[in-house]
């Protein structure tokens, strides 16, 4: 079976899920964007007399992400049909929509147990022919799909988009041991032809290629420069625009990625390497861990190394 990809279900409407859905919608692939059901009502929802069973509340996370995307829409790069191609939904009620999809992309928090549980739920509605991929930053594809059927694993692989998905050309595709090369070729073609990506096929090693190098660079910079008493602004000045890399200043990048996500990504390498020197390098310095504990997650929470005004 080798049908074209015109319908996607993106699960997780955070920084990456919403950005990936936007890129797909913009090239004409219709998307359903799912997220978990919010645990509590907001004050505004209470004032309107809504309850947790109301669709608007149940779809709040995905709807908010879509509203944000439409507001950011910079014409003429996005076509006018863009907004109509992304529909919000929630995981509890709408996961069955994957039955009718060509491609399901898992983009939830960087946590092995959460992703494994979600894949098990996805498989309950999955049919052969539907491609399933994960946007994990570096969790093992094999570990994530352990327990799933062989037929499902033939259709499963990593598709690692970079942040922000619309501007970053690189896409790592990570086949698992059982991924069918024909399915890899099918996603590669969509990525290259429709999404304009440069695809690199990566091995299923901790953090694949780009994040193994990237996390290493960020942690070394963070530790060394702060130990020597430089400020966030000074480090960013020399690691960003002044080096001819306008978007890659160290602390701006960490705030953009999300400090919680960065912590999970670094932990993933630390927990999966044996070499003592590597374990030390991939141990996140205490101050950054504290920031995450107190809810300073970067741009998404409004406060990271910088405060969003
Ligand atoms: P995020 O924190 O912005 O969003 C995560 C989403 O997952 C949220 O919408 C949240 O509601 C949802 N979620 C939380 N718990 C859940 C659960 N139990 N079940 C289902 N959904 C749940 O994170 P993000 O930055 O969008 O990262 C998502 C994935 O993409 C991660 O695997 C991350 O490693 C990867 N990634 C992130 C970046 C980046 O720069 N942030 C880059 C590449 C890949």
TrEMBL record:
User: What are the protein's UniProt keywords?
Assistant: Fatty acid metabolism, Lipid degradation, Lipid metabolism, NAD, Oxidoreductase
Residue ranges occupied by any 3-hydroxyacyl-CoA dehydrogenase C-terminal domain in the UniProt entry? 208-307
Q: Where is the 3-hydroxyacyl-CoA dehydrogenase NAD binding domain?
A: 8-205
The family this protein is said to belong to: Belongs to the 3-hydroxyacyl-CoA dehydrogenase family.
Task: Indicate what this protein is called per its UniProt record.
Answer: Enoyl-CoA hydratase
């Amino acid at each position: 079976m080798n049908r074209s990809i015109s319908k996607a279900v993106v699960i997780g409407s955070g920084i990456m899920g919403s950005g990936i859905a936007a890129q797909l919608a913009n090239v004409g692939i219709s998307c359903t964007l799912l997220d978990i059901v919010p645990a509590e009502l907001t004050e505004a929802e209470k004032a309107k007399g809504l309850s947790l069973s109301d669709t608007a509340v149940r779809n709040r996370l995905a709807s908010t992400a879509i509203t944000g995307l439409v507001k950011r829409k910079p014409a003429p790069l996005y076509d006018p049909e863009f907004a109509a191609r992304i529909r919000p939904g929630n995981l509890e009620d709408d996961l069955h929509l994957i039955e009718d999809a060509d491609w399901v992309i898992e983009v939830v928090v960087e946590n092995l147990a959460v992703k494994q549980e979600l894949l098990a739920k996805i498989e309950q509605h999955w049919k052969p022919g539907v491609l399933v991929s994960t946007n994990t930053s570096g969790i093992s594809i094999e570990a994530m799909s352990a327990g799933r059927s062989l037929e499902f694993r033939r259709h499963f692989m990593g598709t690692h988009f970079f942040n922000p998905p619309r501007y970053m050309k690189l896409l790592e595709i990570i086949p698992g041991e059982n991924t069918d090369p024909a399915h890899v070729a099918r996603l590669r073609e969509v990525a290259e032809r429709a999404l304009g990506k440069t695809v690199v096929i990566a091995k299923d090693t901790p953090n694949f290629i780009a994040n193994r190098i990237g996390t290493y660079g960020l942690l070394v910079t963070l530790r060394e420069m702060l130990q020597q008493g430089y400020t966030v602004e000074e480090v960013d000045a020399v690691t960003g625009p002044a080096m001819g890399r306008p978007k890659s200043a160290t602390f701006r990048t960490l705030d953009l990625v999300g400090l919680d996500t960065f912590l999970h990504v670094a932990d993933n390498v630390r927990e999966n390497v044996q070499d003592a020197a590597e374990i030390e390098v991939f141990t996140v310095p205490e101050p950054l861990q504290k920031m995450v504990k107190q809810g300073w997650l970067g741009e998404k929470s409004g406060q990271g190394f910088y405060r969003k005004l």
